[in-house]
UniProtKB/TrEMBL annotation:
The keyword Aminoacyl-tRNA synthetase does not apply. The lineage of its organism: Bacteria, Pseudomonadati, Pseudomonadota, Betaproteobacteria, Burkholderiales. This is Probable membrane transporter protein. The chain crosses the membrane at residues 6-36, 48-66, 78-96, 108-126, 146-167, 179-202, 214-233, 245-263. It is a multi-pass membrane protein. It is found in: Cell membrane; Membrane.
Length: 267
């Protein structure tokens, strides 16, 4: 890779890591469109570009989640019981998500990602408060919720915060606890999703050199390095700034990235 590309990937990783720590969204929603742009510019086979962008994004979350969750844990914000109850379903769902993605063409996958990121941006922009009285479901309900979170996260290459945070908010978990707990949930999502993308991408035609399944290792290494450095900064910022205001700014960014992925689906 040339130094210009390394610099771009470092900036992407810094922005993705900061947003992961700040909002608990894993950074994937931001990274996937940018990685797609870079892989397209480098002439990767169109049939695998979106699959590789999603897989590489999930791989970076392995490192980002460990970095950001430490900062949140030091603030005593992570609800570890919730992590324990959701993780079994998340591991299963995150393994299945990439398998479903493999059955889709890059066009369909880009369209699905664009629509889903638009939905998530709207959710973030509206910032609706949950009504009182709801509690977390029992073990079976938490397994089912974890399965859905993992399935969608594995499919779109994100950390799952776009579903887990609203779910926890709906169950009256405080927003800072929900963001911190979502950061911790990013690890089982990324672990199962990364292994699944390696397994289902193994031997696929037209993958570029230095690929491990659908994961492009050079991009993973550079982005993960920057993400790990900036995720704790985002986590600390989440406890100091009005996150509701920042979410509106990020929602606008997500709309722009969604527009690109929708354009990519038809070009």
């Amino acid at each position: 890779m040339d130094w210009g590309l390394v610099l771009v990937l470092l900036l992407m990783g810094a922005f993705g890591g900061f947003s992961a720590g700040l909002l608990g969204i894993g950074g994937g929603m931001i990274l996937v469109p940018f990685i797609t742009m870079i892989f397209s510019a480098r002439g990767f086979a169109p049939e695998v570009i979106v699959h590789m962008a999603i897989a590489t994004s999930l791989g970076t979350i392995l490192f980002t989640s460990m970095s950001s969750v430490r900062a949140h844990h030091l603030h005593g914000a992570v609800r570890w019981r919730i992590v324990a109850l959701l993780s079994p379903g998340i591991l299963l769902g995150s393994w299945i998500g990439p398998w479903i993605g493999k059955q889709m063409s890059s066009t369909v996958l880009a369209l699905f990602f664009g629509l889903f990121i638009s939905f998530s941006a709207t959710q973030m922009l509206l910032g609706k408060k949950p009504s009182g009285g709801r509690e977390l479901p029992g073990t079976v309900g938490m397994f089912a919720a974890g399965g859905l979170i993992g399935l969608l996260a594995g499919l779109v290459g994100a950390g799952g915060g776009f579903i887990s945070i609203p779910f926890m908010g709906w169950c009256n978990v405080k927003i800072h606890n929900a963001v911190a707990t979502s950061a911790a949930l990013g690890f089982p999502i990324a672990l199962a999703g990364t292994l699944s993308n390696i397994f289902y991408g193994w031997g696929v035609a037209d993958l570029p050199p230095y690929s491990l399944g659908f994961i492009y290792l050079p991009a993973l290494a550079v982005i993960a390095t920057a993400s790990v450095l900036f995720a704790p900064l985002g986590a600390r910022t989440a406890h100091r700034l009005p996150v509701a205001t920042l979410k509106k700014v990020f929602a606008v960014v997500l709309y722009c990235l969604a527009a690109y992925m929708l354009w990519k689906a038809f070009h």
